[in-house]
Specification:
Length: about 130
């Protein structure tokens, strides 16, 4: 039984985690526009390894990743590689439990959305 079924939600809750500039906000906007319930889980800022599970209990957890050089190229971030490594460390539990892992370094926004939608259609087929 999914969390959606347990809580009476109409559709599954999709949790999205990953380091800064991996594409989480863009993916969530696109999924929401398509009618999905998608939430950013700010696990990269939490010292509690399973915070993603405690706060959200998503029906599916999607982990978007980006390397330090790509993250820096995407956004002007005032951080060091050590900061990025710390985010990766904080995300380790979510990465290990992710239902879908995508490194977005070489992917366009439409390609990320396409991969996630293909996963969601398999995971939650229409009745």
């Amino acid at each position: 039984m999914t969390t959606a079924e347990k809580t009476g939600r109409q559709s599954p809750l999709i949790g999205v985690v990953g380091p800064c500039a991996a594409g989480k906000s863009t993916l969530i906007e696109n999924l929401t526009r398509l009618g999905y319930q998608a939430r950013h889980i700010a696990q990269e800022h939490s010292y509690v390894p399973d915070m993603w599970q405690r706060l959200t209990a998503p029906d599916a957890l999607i982990f978007l990743d980006a390397s330090y050089p790509v993250a820096c190229a995407r956004r002007k971030l005032d951080w060091t590689e050590k900061d990025w490594q710390e985010q990766q460390h904080r995300l380790r539990h979510a990465r290990q439990h992710a239902d879908l892992y995508l490194n977005t370094d070489e992917l366009t926004i439409p390609q990320v959305l396409e991969a996630v939608l293909a996963f969601l259609e398999k995971r939650f087929p229409p009745p």
